[in-house]
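Limitations
The structure tokens in this dataset are predictions for the assembled complex, not deposited experimental models. Users should treat interface geometry with appropriate caution, especially where small molecules or nucleic acid strands are included. An illustrative entry is reproduced here so readers can see what is and is not provided.
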Amino acid sequence: MSHNFSFQSLAECSQTKARAGVFMTPHGPVETPRFMPVGTLANVKTVTPDQLSSTGAQMILSNTYHLHLQPGEKIVAGGGGLHKFMGWNGPMLTDSGGFQVFSLSEMRKISEDGVTFRSPHDGQIIHLTPERSIEIQNTLGADVIMAFDECPPYPATREDVQAATDRTYRWLERCISFHQRSDQALFGIVQGGVYLDLRIQAAEALAELDLPGYAIGGVSVGEPPELMADIVRTTAPLLPPEKPRYLMGVGTYREMAIAIASGVDLFDCVIPTRWARHGTAIVQGERWNLKNAKFREDYAPLDETCSCYACANFSRAYISHLVRSQEILGYTLLSIHNITELIRFTQKIRQAILGDRFTREFAQWLN
Amino acid sequence: MSHNFSFQSLAECSQTKARAGVFMTPHGPVETPRFMPVGTLANVKTVTPDQLSSTGAQMILSNTYHLHLQPGEKIVAGGGGLHKFMGWNGPMLTDSGGFQVFSLSEMRKISEDGVTFRSPHDGQIIHLTPERSIEIQNTLGADVIMAFDECPPYPATREDVQAATDRTYRWLERCISFHQRSDQALFGIVQGGVYLDLRIQAAEALAELDLPGYAIGGVSVGEPPELMADIVRTTAPLLPPEKPRYLMGVGTYREMAIAIASGVDLFDCVIPTRWARHGTAIVQGERWNLKNAKFREDYAPLDETCSCYACANFSRAYISHLVRSQEILGYTLLSIHNITELIRFTQKIRQAILGDRFTREFAQWLN
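Predicted assembly:
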């Protein structure tokens, strides 16, 4: 690992593989386990960097595919790189664009070299390769950058998944060769779909590459919850314990608790901000629709145990009014609360691991 | 005037009728002249109360008509009144609903008693009278409440405007009789359309009622700018100098400067937030469309002389990117800037009046 990065496990659960650690980056520490908010287009939707800091956010994500299309990485670099451009001085990660190309783009053509697709913005032909993805991410300048991977949809045949997993490995080797900036840590991504033997092969092969961090990709793509749990339980322990482990695209209480018990450290998910824009609050792991009539005259805060800006200052009745009126402030307040809530969940687990109380205090989320 | 309210003129311009004063309310002082942001539905669109405070906002507006329809004044009262419900502890004003009924409602029927119309929410028949408007405003609990007035559209015949102006006066008498809360100041509204003799009659009649404050209504409804200036120049000086004067719905640099020179103290307008949602910044009185190609790689702040949160932390290029991507954060940042900009303009005029430099420093806006 580069001198700019390190991972240290501070405590380990006596009954599971859960661990509490610190991942050091050039922009500061990330206390793990921890949920990372998603800021697709160089902003976490509806919240300012100040508001984001107040949620307890440490590391956040941004999106290579979307930023390449708009505004383009050169404009971000012209603004001093992603941190300065968007006003976030903490740790940051960019995904590689692989997932988005495979899930969002139409008319894509995959070859050994890379992927060709039409920009949904202007119809322009775009060719994305492992080298190009790393080049864009080097230009954007996040602390952690992700290898360019092929992420097959669910369901997919064993043959298709095997081919994608093998190609992802070859692409990873090209990413490693091309990557130049020592102030950016390149994480490899384990694919393998729901085929556990493929996951095992992929994880073991990646582990030998001694990367600064590892991700489990290709989950939360439509597979049943039990299969995701199987994938994580099988894969995570095979990844080097002295490196951070990141489960991509995951963010419910139960999924995170189970993954943490398997040794995962980092999570990201769009649900706190997406649900907010649908008028939904996450309260103690439950989903509440604020348009529900019962909230019209409910003057309690969303969650009395939460100290976020929304809970400290506003009532359910007020947020319900804003959401009914389609006032953007309602989505902002719900985003602040939902992000705080998911980070708080991972912070509480961290404290429990440090005190070896994880399985006792979080039993309801581990079954 | 109730013991909870007072207006004091601290300085007067030697060449115009402009004055710098302080309007005291139960929720604190308003330093005049001053622009008041509009928070129609118990929130200033896209900004939190904290962000609003940072713009220099002192007094803000909310809307009787809209709040009566959603969430209803009883729900606001149940939440502790408008201040507590929306988390704004500074001075607040509610309009009477008159303007909205006449400009927004279809199928309205006007009688001496009041106005009947269908709710655009659910088609329910609503009857709004002077008494009902005051009752709703008493229930909402803003510091300043407005008389229920008839606001004819432009153009309108002299006969129609005369009838509306006379009825507005009779309705004002009913508002005064019905209003009970001494912690709320009832302002009368001068109507009269573009007919200066009607304006003079109305202003003189209202001045005799010794109200805690006076507004000039029925401008910015489509009349040419020269006519608005004539109306303000004719009407404002007839209103009692020891009371605050409020020009409703006005908010461009030129309109405010001319009105201040005529002795007006308070302004409100939706343009800073509405323009923000169209991707438009107000910079030194100019309108800038942030989607314009020239801003794509412009890394300067919107306005280098502005210390608002948006200008202190972000570039034109970044805000342009957000606006092009239709990211809500772009509208939030532009709203913060635009509100700051208009308040700053009135604050600068206030300082100039205090130093008797108003006509010299603001000559470009007074011609």
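Some entries come with short summary sentences. For this one: Residues 276-334 of chain A form one domain.
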